[in-house]
Write a structure and sequence with these properties.
The protein is an alpha+beta fold. The protein is built from nine helices and six strands, in the order αααββαβαααββααβ. The chain has two domains: 66 residues, Arc Repressor Mutant, subunit A; 77 residues, Arc Repressor Mutant, subunit A (Orthogonal Bundle), CATH 1.10.10. About 6% of the residues have low confidence.
């Protein structure tokens, strides 16, 4: 019987460690050793060895750590970084953007009819929208994209890369139906409305 070489065994260990690390990273809760072993097709002994290597690698040299709880293993931030993580979370939440219904409707109008003028947006919405447009510009969700070749040469508005990032779009061709986008933006509005201290885009 030909035994595997140390180099081959090392490659297998690295591959297993990367897979275990990735699964723990994306998991929303603790993952048991048996569950990991079953999913990856290896023994529980292999999983324990992998977890040991990962934990040793994290100790003192990483912002992450592995902890064992009753239900399994969790990937968490390092205990000594708790203060800076909490401070960042507070700042991040305080800067979270909240969208008013007027902003939602205006943003949807720009997204689906861009480039579009203020008058055209107001025709769609049925109300004035100069203030909400200014605020959407301020928050980087829309931008001025030239002027329309018509009497008065009114400004044309387009969505920005921040808008794309906010709603997980890689290009305008990825825009869902108008109804679906309104639901998605509305859900974002509702989810953010409970965050204290955020900027509220209002008309």
């Amino acid at each position: 019987m030909i035994s595997s070489s140390p180099l081959h065994d090392q490659d297998l260990s690295v591959d297993l460690d990367r897979k275990v690390e990735a699964l723990l990273f994306v998991s929303s809760g603790p993952v048991g050793e048996r569950e990991l072993a079953s999913f990856l097709g290896v023994s529980s002994k292999d999983i324990r060895a992998s977890l040991g290597r990962l934990k040793a690698r994290y100790e003192g040299a990483s912002g992450l750590d592995l902890i064992s709880v009753a239900e399994g293993w969790l990937m968490v931030t390092a205990e000594d970084l708790a203060e800076v993580v909490a401070a960042f979370r507070d700042v991040s939440q305080s800067q979270r953007l909240r969208l008013s219904r007027a902003a939602v409707e205006t943003l949807a109008a720009v997204a689906y009819h861009q480039p579009i003028t203020r008058a055209e947006i107001e025709e769609i919405r049925g109300v004035r929208c100069d203030r909400v447009l200014d605020t959407l510009l301020k928050h980087g969700l829309i931008r001025v994209g030239g002027r329309k070749k018509s009497p008065g040469n009114p400004l044309l508005y387009r969505t920005t890369s921040r808008f794309m990032d906010l709603f997980g779009l890689s290009s305008l061709s990825d825009l869902p139906s108008l109804e679906d986008l309104m639901e998605e933006i509305g859900g974002y509005e509702e989810g953010c409305s409970s965050e204290a201290g955020g900027d509220v885009v209002e008309d």
